[in-house]
Hints:
Elements: E1 3-13, E2 19-29, E3 33-37, H1 44-51, E4 59-64, E5 67-68, H2 73-77, E6 80-83, H3 95-105, H4 112-121, H5 137-149, E7 155-159, H6 167-182, E8 186-190, H7 194-200, E9 203-208, E10 211-217, H8 218-225, E11 228-234, E12 251-253, E13 258-263, H9 272-281, E14 286-293, H10 296-315
Parallel strand pairs: 3-8, 3-9, 6-7, 7-8
Antiparallel strand pairs: 1-2, 1-4, 4-5, 9-10, 11-13, 11-14, 12-13
Helix pairs in contact: 3-5
Amino acid sequence: MHSILSLSGVSKTYGSGHVALSHVDLDIRRGEIFALLGPNGAGKTTLISIVCGIVTPSSGTILVDGHDAIRAPREARSRIGLVPQEIAVDMFSSVASTLRFSRGLFGRAPNQPHLDQLLKDLSLWDKRDAKIMELSGGMKRRVMIAKALSHEPDILFLDEPTAGVDVSLRRDMWRLIGTLRERGVTIILTTHYIEEAEEMADRVGVIDKGRLLLVEDKAALMQKLGKRQMDISLVEPMAAIPPALAEWQLSLEDEGHKLRYSFDAQAERTGIPSLLRALADHGIGFTDLDTSKSSLEDIFVDLVERKEPASAEAAA
């Protein structure tokens, strides 16, 4: 599939010596939903800011739909909509005039039906003549989304879009994202709500300490790295795990009524048969076995922790 956004060797080092991004290579496919996951300070916002022309990279090239974002910033930026974490808008302007002004900034001809539809989609129609300073925090966030979409961009960046917002806005946001995706808009989001990425994204990238650790189709990532866990419901609750079961690294759950065993379903030997034999040998009865897959959040945490030593060596 053709890439609408391509980053090659993108780095950012500040005057203080802090390396915010280190040689990031990334291709985003046209029309996909791409989730960029990482802890606070990982480099997510820096990456977005560089693509959007807010921050200048120290090195690397960025192509936005074939346009060099450094040599031809206006052409590249006109294809991008950005919803930043912080609310940045003229508080004395009305909602409707804010959208008209933002569309004009990108040189787009007036299209009031498009702006009216945005206001309706984001439940802002009744507030279209209100000054932004009069709106609630959730309504201001809706204005930021409408503002980013006012010039009909091909790429939409959502930087922690639902952090700290109400359930109603989160629902409207994801409904709108589904509609945009059907129209062919490419959506790149950063989020702490990993369950949303798990539900919405086609591909996932994991970034930590400025390094892109992995980019993978979501389904393939979960199949390749996802572990399974087995919950063993006990006949009698346990106060502690017997030393004889130490090799399986079990955990006690549900106030001692369950034993939990995590294992790699892709491994040649899962350890389950030997565990069940050991339970029988030690007279530990159980009433039920239940297995489940790990979530994307489990995989994310495992990836970051696994890369920690290598990242630390690289930083040194």
